[in-house]
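sry for the spam today, last one i promise. struct tokens for design, 236 residues
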């Protein structure tokens, strides 16, 4: 579960941020909870009474205690919870980055900007980096960064890494769940690809960097194209 706190003292903006955050995390297929806060003080009280968050989306210009003040207090306590600052003014940039946030976003916050920031946080701080699978009473550990693509043939699931093809008895849906938050995308009823190994794609197939071609199912075409473009944007 990826727990997010959204802190903004303007009700409409806070609700919009929560809605946009939900849209991004639903799009990324990440199980999540989102909790809104109207002030730094109420957020601090929640954290002091045992609530923990993986990410705080924090308005800098809060009434009362500012977002900068709150973040500085957190860092003084060695609390390294990920922070995405939002603000209407670029002038706060020089203050914000001394706190080492994941990102600084100028309002109005748009989907692509928030997607890029959250993707960076998950990739840097919350990626498992390894996939553990059981088969015939044995456990196998595979580095997710080494997985090029995954396919299902008959009752077997095959994980393709450089120079190796390993068979397991699991469904693609089970693997997809384990890979949530990673840079993978379902592109067909029988295929998942690692976006970092995609070289190019057309309407009907993906060409991977090793020359292998993987089909794109019609129902997955738009979602794959959107995810790949956003993945590339998040790398820049």
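last one done:
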């Amino acid at each position: 579960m990826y727990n997010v706190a959204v802190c903004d003292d303007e009700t409409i903006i806070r609700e919009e941020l929560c809605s946009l955050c939900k849209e991004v995390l639903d799009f990324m297929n990440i199980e999540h909870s989102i909790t809104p806060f109207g002030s730094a003080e109420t957020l601090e009280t929640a954290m002091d009474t045992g609530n923990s968050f993986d990410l705080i989306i924090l308005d800098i210009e809060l009434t009362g205690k500012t977002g900068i003040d709150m973040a500085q207090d957190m860092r003084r306590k060695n609390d390294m919870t990920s922070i995405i600052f939002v603000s209407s003014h670029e002038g706060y940039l020089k203050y914000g980055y001394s706190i080492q946030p994941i990102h600084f976003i100028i309002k109005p916050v748009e989907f692509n900007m928030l997607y890029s920031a959250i993707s960076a946080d998950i990739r840097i701080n919350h990626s498992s980096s390894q996939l553990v699978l059981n088969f015939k009473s044995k456990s196998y550990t595979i580095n997710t960064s080494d997985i090029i693509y995954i396919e299902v043939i008959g009752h077997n699931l095959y994980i393709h890494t450089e120079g190796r093809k390993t068979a397991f008895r699991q469904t693609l849906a089970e693997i997809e769940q384990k890979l949530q938050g990673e840079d993978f995308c379902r592109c067909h009823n029988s295929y998942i690809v690692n976006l970092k190994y995609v070289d190019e794609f057309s309407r009907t197939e993906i060409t991977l960097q090793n020359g292998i071609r993987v089909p794109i199912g019609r129902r997955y075409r738009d979602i794959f194209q959107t995810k790949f473009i956003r993945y590339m944007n998040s790398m820049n």
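The helical segments are 11-27, 40-48, 67-76, 93-96, 111-126, 172-178, 221-235. ok im logging off now
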